[in-house]
Structures are given as structure tokens and as C-alpha cells.
Predict the structure.
Amino acid sequence: MRKAQEIIDWCIERGLNVFERIWPLIKGAPHNRLAWIVTLTGLTILSGPLWETIVRSALEKFVGIKLDQPPGPIWGFALVVVALIYHFFAYRADKLRLEIKSNRIREHDGRILRDFESKYQHSNFHFILNFIDTDHSVTSDREKYLTLMTEYLLSPSNYLLDDALRTKAATLAKNVEAMQNFIGKNFFVPRAATNADRCCLRPDWNCDRCATNLPTPDEESQYDQLANKLSELVRDVLTSYDELLVAAHYRAW
């Protein structure tokens, strides 16, 4: 009796091990589970000669149940073939569906990003940002240029379907907004300016733009700190801009 119990425990343990290996394969799409069930049924019928005699004899002897003759191996083979054919066509249908979806996303996002690049060309964008970084000044038309670019990226009509591209576009918009907030708080029209079209980084702390009121050493030190912060913000904007265009070439063009 103990030996029989050990055999039963071993069979259960082996069955669980097999199930743990098979379950990750069949737990996905419904057609995967259906194909696996039909395949296992066919394999069970095919392996009938190995277990059918033992099971029938045991049931008849200990339980008193007499089973009818199970289907022949040919039926098991047919089930396996049908399951494999079904799985193949279902797999191909899923793949084609994903390809169609991917092509639609690429077409949609590619149109938006090509339009974005034509409006905000790489050379022009880098020139404007590098000028802000080196000259510590910005004109009203360039501020408007950056504002319009941010609005373009955040507009619902330009919503990107690809998750990675949408994240990079949002990062670029966020970095531009951070730089513009810095400019809004720390850029002013110099006192000696003839018009208000150009703002500069704390001109009262810059000895070249402060007119007759020279800055103190402490103010010059603070100016340098602001200039370093501006360079950091500009670098973040340029990096996120380049990363968006690179990702667009991979995922949308």
C-alpha cells in the first residue's frame, strides 16, 4: 500500500512539473490554449497503447467499470495535425494584425514628425539654442519660435501613438518649458537698449551690459552661476531634441 502511495505521489509530482513547464506556453492567447488542448488530446489518443490496457484493467478489477474501446491512433494523429494547422494560421493572423497596426502607427507618427522637423529644422534649432547659450540673450521672435514648438508637441492633434516617441516628445517639451521659465525669471531688457525686442541674462550683473552701474563681485559670481544653469538647460533641450529625431528615424520613418 505504501509503495502504491509513493507511485501516486511521484506521478502527481511529475504531472505538476510538466504542467509548470507547459502552462507559460498555453496561458497566452485563447487560440494558443485551444491548440494545446487539442494537441494534448491527440497525443493522449496516440499514446493509448501504452496506458489504455493498464487503465482499463485497473478500472475493471478495482472499480468494476468497463470502458468502451477508445478511438484508434489515427484519430489522435488527425487531432494533432488539425491543432498544428489551426495554430499556424492563428499565429500568422496575429502577426499580420500586429504588422498592420505597426504600419498604421508608423504612418501616423511619421507624418507628424516629418512636419515637425520641417518646421523646426535641426540646423536652425541648434543655432538658436547655441546662440542663447553663448550670448546669454534671446529675441522675442525666437522666444515665440520655442513657444510654438512646445505647443506643437503638446497639441492633441499631434498626439503620437508610439509610446517611446510620445515620451521623448514630452521630455523635449518639458525641457523647453523649463528653459523658458528660467529665461522668464532671469532675462531682462538692458537699460541702454534702444528697444525691448531683446532680453539678456541679468544685464545689471553683466559688466558689458550694465551701463554705468557696475556689478559687485558677489553679483558677478551669481551671474556666473546663472550662466552655468542656462548652459545646463540648453544642453538638456538639445539632447532631448536630438533623441526625438533619432528615435523617429528608427520607429516612424
Observations:
- The two ends are 71 Å apart (CA to CA).
